[in-house]
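Pilot study result, target chain (336 residues):
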Amino acid sequence: MTVVGPFGLSVRDQALEADVQNGLSAVEAGLLEATKSEVPFITEAAQHLVRAGGKRFRPLLVMLAAQFGDPHAPGVVPSAVVVELTHLATLYHDDVMDEADVRRGVSSANARWGNSVAVLTGDFLFARASHILADLGPEAVRIQAEAFERLVTGQILETAGPRDGRDPVAHYLDVIGGKTGSLIAVSGRFGAMMSGADEGVTDILTQYGERLGVAFQLADDVLDIASDSHESGKTPGTDLREGIPTLPVLHLRARAAAQGLPEDLELVALLDGDLADDARHAEALRRLRAHPALEQARRDTVRYAEEARAMLAPLPECYARAALEELCDAVVHRAG
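Predicted structure:
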């Protein structure tokens, strides 16, 4: 048993391990090549987050999905580079929108060079991803364009908030389906499609990726409240302090509105106050960790991960399918 990829995913077959490790190494080299520019400053800014590391969750999914066809087909690694470049580009833009100071343990691009450089660097990465896509054919371009539209729509919906009368939880799930699920779905789709897997398998891995992507984000929501910094790699309650709506908080607000329990209303008032104050922030975290809303968010995470696992049932039993099933377990484990 060998550990590869994010969350300590274990691979039980030497041939699969070699394919995945070699593929991820090739992706890493491809990312560095794609972020080079004749202008040294652009190279520095574009490689800032590449060199900071990351889970490479999306390229890993591409590599595993490619096992259902020819994993060495020429389009597999470039398509994995495309999805990771797109993901990295969104991080540059997200950090500007969120006014974030730190990303992956290093100063964010906007904190280091300013918002304008961060936005333009994100645009540069999108351009480089498009350049690679052009060599993968018009179908790949169309798929990526549709996913990018969903991603941007999800971001706009998050910014605009739910329309009057819309359930905030349902709205939020739509948001993360676009912001996170769409690109992870494309990762499964590209891996299968570029490897020459048949259309049925490609559809299965696309739907698997969509559901796994939602579970992945919901696990992050739980981690933001439930974990310590050692577990999550970031300061607990970051989203809470910044007023970013996450699933546990949305469940709390729904329960407070429906039941009107004094302790729930008090906690909502605390969250609506100034969480820049460390004492108030710590109290909000303490109370949320003990609140049923957190466990409800965990159950939602498990539900989406189990839906992802169920999508794999028609696939032949093999080491790659077992690894994809283990990814579902790993996501649930992150949420506790």
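One observation from the pilot: The chain has a mean pLDDT of 90. A full batch analysis is planned for the follow-on phase.
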